């Protein structure tokens, strides 16, 4: 048994990203289908929905089309379905499965089984029993695919579900309803009930593959894999299955002891980064300032190796203290007249051309408003590139109010407003009969986009940015009118390369926040990375002197041990940032598709920034009111 095995009680495979992990899962399924085909047997699959398996289904569809993978011998049973829900409702899992898999493959429709969300209440028990019988009659599930909820649920078996549970009607946890609310117009429309296979139904499967991607799943993956088996974390019950496997991307795996505290799982090379991580995490855990850590603290926390290799606590404490001290600067563009050897940014050139990429029209001010202001005040040539229109996050009420205003404005000044009146009337009629999640007309979408553009412009003026430095990219991947976006396309990359080549920046800031529940930030980041890669490959000269800094979006902050540049803010600067965020009125009080955090954006930003400052202070560094944090990306 290796040291890793002694921590991890479920086998784990880790891939660089979800695409690679999904390909592996799809290959496992395809191999099973083919081997069953060769033996003349049917292959019974248990299937999941949600964002996790989408890429895997896309790969299976590709294999069907390009590699002759046939599904004629496949019988499927889906894990769960909302209740009640129409089978063809936009959010139903029935519709999801057809859209992502069944409509594109040669499966026999009578082999498809999904709990029926239209079953009358009095027939539900019977329906669930029948579902179990159908699984048994098919010979049991050969391979079960699972995702995992942030609270550890598998299927819709919420915390507390019994290990003996079978297919049944359950109530959804509030946390699950909030997590899934992004599929619905708002939380009140998320069903309160669901039909789900039970834990015992799942555990009876011959093989289980659980996939988890992204930082939102990090904590629950660690608990399920390394902590004790408990019904409070249903996925931990998979420790009792003899053929289950977790397929993870690097982000989802990052809390596992082998990554979080690799010194506990075997020999390791102590790089400065690793030393910083180990010492910072230990100081936070024992709640001591860095300079107060003792040899005994190091020994008690599994770091005696470090004492042997690097020196005693006094030396180590100082080394890490200086690293943190040097990450703090009030000069995000570098300090012009003074060369400081360990400063996070270089002094020259001064002034710098900087581009802030903002995935949505308010990410710049929410995530780095203080730094944005400093860059401008310190004389740099700051550009902002708004990557998407953000039109999906404007409510219907808000857009109607603005259209009313436009028509009233024209009336007031005697401008011929026939055309605007017509547009307003059509929009009103449409919105009156609009069903939840129905796509807006192109006119309504344009007006929603215009509202957000005006807000972004107003914020830039508030900071002091000139109009010609404001760039609205309206990247096409975003313009689906629905919460689900297209993947990155050629046009997105082309537009971004053009802009970069026009500005030739010395500094680029972009959102490295991959926990954005809508996935927009991830695509926006991929587009920038791909553009930079191509520009570098083409040999443009300016790129050699271009540094990229990643900020996190509204949902998360960098781990303290990772931060490479921390920009302090005074109480007045915090207030100035707050008012800058307020300018985005369409995003205040209530937004559609809020995600799992019900606080307003300014509250989240202030919490995060003061939390970072408090952590620095807790470690014995100067106490600021707030701090914005950045990590450098080397390409
Ligand atoms: C879906 C299901 C759920 C999801 C889980 C994760 O059929 O049973 O357990 O797997 O809620 O959802 P995503 O993948 O959207 O993060």
TrEMBL record:
Instruction: Name the source organism.
Output: Niastella populi
Belongs to which family?
A: Belongs to the glucosamine/galactosamine-6-phosphate isomerase family. NagB subfamily.
A Gene Ontology molecular-function term? glucosamine-6-phosphate deaminase activity
Q: What class of enzyme is it?
A: hydrolase
Q: Which PANTHER family match?
A: GLUCOSAMINE-6-PHOSPHATE DEAMINASE-LIKE PROTEIN BT_0258-RELATED, GLUCOSAMINE-6-PHOSPHATE ISOMERASE
**CDD domains recorded:** GlcN6P_deaminase (cd01399)
Protein function: Catalyzes the reversible isomerization-deamination of glucosamine 6-phosphate (GlcN6P) to form fructose 6-phosphate (Fru6P) and ammonium ion.
Q: Where is the Glucosamine/galactosamine-6-phosphate isomerase domain?
A: 20-244
Pathway in which this enzyme or protein is active: Amino-sugar metabolism; N-acetylneuraminate degradation; D-fructose 6-phosphate from N-acetylneuraminate: step 5/5
Q: What is its EC number?
A: 3.5.99.6
| Gene assigned in the entry | nagB
Identification of the protein by name: Glucosamine-6-phosphate deaminase
Catalyzed reactions per annotation: alpha-D-glucosamine 6-phosphate + H2O = beta-D-fructose 6-phosphate + NH4(+)
Question: What biological-process terms (Gene Ontology) are attached?
Answer: carbohydrate metabolic process; N-acetylglucosamine catabolic process; N-acetylneuraminate catabolic process
User: Which controlled-vocabulary keywords does the entry list?
Assistant: Carbohydrate metabolism, Hydrolase
Q: Cite the active-site annotation.
A: 80 (proton acceptor), 151 (for ring-opening step), 153 (proton acceptor), 158 (for ring-opening step)
A Pfam cross-reference name: PIG-L
Q: Which NCBIfam families match?
A: nagB, PRK02122.1
């Amino acid at each position: 048994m290796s040291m890793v095995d002694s921590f991890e009680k479920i086998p784990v495979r880790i891939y660089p990203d979800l695409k690679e992990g999904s390909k592996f899962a799809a290959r496992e399924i395809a191999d099973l289908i083919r081997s069953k085909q060769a033996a003349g047997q049917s292959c019974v699959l248990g299937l999941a929905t949600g964002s996790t398996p989408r890429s895997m289904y896309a790969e299976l569809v590709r294999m069907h089309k390009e590699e002759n993978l046939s599904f004629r011998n496949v019988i499927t049973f889906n894990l769960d379905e909302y209740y009640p829900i129409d089978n063809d409702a936009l959010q139903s899992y029935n519709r999801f499965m057809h859209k992502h898999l069944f409509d594109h493959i040669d499966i026999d429709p009578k082999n498809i089984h999904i709990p029926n969300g239209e079953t009358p209440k009095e027939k539900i028990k019977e329906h669930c029993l029948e579902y179990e019988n159908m699984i048994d009659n098919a010979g049991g599930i050969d391979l079960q695919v699972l995702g995992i909820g942030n609270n550890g649920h598998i299927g819709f078996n919420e915390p507390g579900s019994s290990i003996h549970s079978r297919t049944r009607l359950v109530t959804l946890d509030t946390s699950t309803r909030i997590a899934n609310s992004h599929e619905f117009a708002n939380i009140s429309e998320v069903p309160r009930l669901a039909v789900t296979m039970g834990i015992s139904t799942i555990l009876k499967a011959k093989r289980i593959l659980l996939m988890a991607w992204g930082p939102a799943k990090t904590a629950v993956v660690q608990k399920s894999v390394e902590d004790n088996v408990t019904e409070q974390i249903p996925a931990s019950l998979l420790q009792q299955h003899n053929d289950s496997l977790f397929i993870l991307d690097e982000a989802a795996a990052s809390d596992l002891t082998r990554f979080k505290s690799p010194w506990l799982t075997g020999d390791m090379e102590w790089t400065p980064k690793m030393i910083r991580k180990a010492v910072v995490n230990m100081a936070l855990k024992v709640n001591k300032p860095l300079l107060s850590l003792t040899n005994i603290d190091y020994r008690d926390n599994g770091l005696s190796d470090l004492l042997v290799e690097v020196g005693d606590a006094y030396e180590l404490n100082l080394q890490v203290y200086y690293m943190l001290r040097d990450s703090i600067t009030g000069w995000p563009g570098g300090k012009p007249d003074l060369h400081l050897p360990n400063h996070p940014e270089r002094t020259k050139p001064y002034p710098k051309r900087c581009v802030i990429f903002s995935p949505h029209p308010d990410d710049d001010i929410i995530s780095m408003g203080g730094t944005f202001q400093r860059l401008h005040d310190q004389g740099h040539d700051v550009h902002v590139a708004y990557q998407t229109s953000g039109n999906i996050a404007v409510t219907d009420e808000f857009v109607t109010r603005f259209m009313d205003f436009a028509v009233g404005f024209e009336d007031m000044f005697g401008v011929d407003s026939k055309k605007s009146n017509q547009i307003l009337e059509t929009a009103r009629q449409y919105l009156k009969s609009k069903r939840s999640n129905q796509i807006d007309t192109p006119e309504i979408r344009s007006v929603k986009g215009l509202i957000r553009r005006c807000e972004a412009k107003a914020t830039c003026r508030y900071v002091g940015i000139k109009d010609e430095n404001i760039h609205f990219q309206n990247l096409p991947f975003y313009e689906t009118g629905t919460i689900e976006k297209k993947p990155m396309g050629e046009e997105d990359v082309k537009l971004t390369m053009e802009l970069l080549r026009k500005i030739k920046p010395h500094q680029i800031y972009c959102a490295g926040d991959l926990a954005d529940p809508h996935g927009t930030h991830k695509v926006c980041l991929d587009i920038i990375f791909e553009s930079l890669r191509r520009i570098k490959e083409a040999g443009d000269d300016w790129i050699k002197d271009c540094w990229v800094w990643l900020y996190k979006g509204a949902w998360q902050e960098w781990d303290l041990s990772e931060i490479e540049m921390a920009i302090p803010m005074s109480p007045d600067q915090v207030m100035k940032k707050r008012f800058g965020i307020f300018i985005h009125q369409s995003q205040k009080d209530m937004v559609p598709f809020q995600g799992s955090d019900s606080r307003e954006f300014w509250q989240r930003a202030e919490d995060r920034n003061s939390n970072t400052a408090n952590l620095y202070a807790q470690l014995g560094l100067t106490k600021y009111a707030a701090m914005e944090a950045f990590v450098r990306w080397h390409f």
